Amino acid sequence: MTGYYGLHSKVWVAVDCIIFGFDNNKLKLLIGRRQMDPGRGEWSLYGGFVGVDESVDEAADRVLFELTGLKHIYMKQVATFGAIDRDPGERVISVAYCALINVKDYDTSLLEEHGVEWVELDKLPHLYSDHNDMVRKALTLLRRRVKTEPISFNLLPDLFTLTQLQHVYEAILGEELDKRNFRKRIKQIDFIEKTELIDKMTSKRGAALYRFNKRMYMEDPTFKL
Amino acid sequence: MTGYYGLHSKVWVAVDCIIFGFDNNKLKLLIGRRQMDPGRGEWSLYGGFVGVDESVDEAADRVLFELTGLKHIYMKQVATFGAIDRDPGERVISVAYCALINVKDYDTSLLEEHGVEWVELDKLPHLYSDHNDMVRKALTLLRRRVKTEPISFNLLPDLFTLTQLQHVYEAILGEELDKRNFRKRIKQIDFIEKTELIDKMTSKRGAALYRFNKRMYMEDPTFKL
DNA sequence: CCAAAAGTGTTCCGTCTACACCCATGG
DNA sequence: CCATGGGTGTAGACGGAACACTTTTGG
Which of B4, B77, B91 sits opposite A80 (nearest CB)? Predict the structure, then answer.
């Protein structure tokens, strides 16, 4: 311990992941039963401790990868939760991260292996410690961000229909949108490009499939829903 | 160390305060020369370690109080900075907080005692570690928040003129605003109430003094600049 | 042939923006 | 009496919201 650092105490720092998914036109959250004490058996976000050899952001990436097997996932810091008694066991400060993933990319066997499952956001049970606060805050941030950044694609497959996209926005914002106004706005956005492909899964008539063009987005990242 | 906690490492957690002030129609930041190693003599935000007996928010309040002698100050978490080598001495994770204070409330003797001073935001020097990143992020958040929350009052005395208020917004947003449009909008906001008092300091004619009515704000917190 | 989802424009209204002159007073 | 900052209204542009019918095709 060099210099004045030694005068102070260290604490454990953890990350907790608020993992949003979209399925069946609903926003869902990946949560599981805690498999350790304290709080064993309680519903909880998935998390882990920050190691000495990784940044906090890297710890969040690692934890998400352990759980889902996915890398390069959209993930943003939500906030840091630092109440003294927030963890009933020891003093642990936790940095909450919000991730958006496409449910279809998720390997279902990993899901069982870690004892987690998708739960509808509006049927969320009471969670361990302050995890409900984390979710609330993440949702608030997500609702704000979804209007100014094109992030909703992260909840969908690479190819998606406009109806699907609209349902994502409706699920996040918790309100219905006007179909014509929605499509009008999307049409003005260059980086949401129509492909020649048609999806025949969801309708008899078939719907055009769209794609998020990252290159075009980089050129002109203007976005407003 | 109980259970699985002991398998993991602890780290130091600090708070750093980005303290905004408003004076001479400019946004200013309270910074000082580091008085300890590593980085002694470099410009730096004012910070401190989180103790075992306080939450992270409380640590931020305490650090701000040590520096300014002020309590009940507007302060919000900005983000947590957790790169491995962000602090050249040891592994320290830091939670950045943004505070808004009225420069006039500040006891100048404390300023010298702690070796800090007000520096214009656009003349900000290079700061220790990642503190410039913290400032950038705080400013981004401040600019967003100032449009949807009535927080600019925190930079002014209890009584202020509309011209002063406009200058605050201009300083934060970094752009000039139209006087008539600005006053039109303010007039629609009930909780910014005109008093009978006149300020004769800044103009010969005298300007009406306004006040932020917290009670009215609680009743109807609608705000949009 | 019909149910079910895809696709498509226009009008109206409210909001934001641009803009210039008179007022009151201390020195 | 004049320099200085305080205070006021209107018109035009723009963007957002409301709104209903036609198309396609699998079953």
Answer: B77
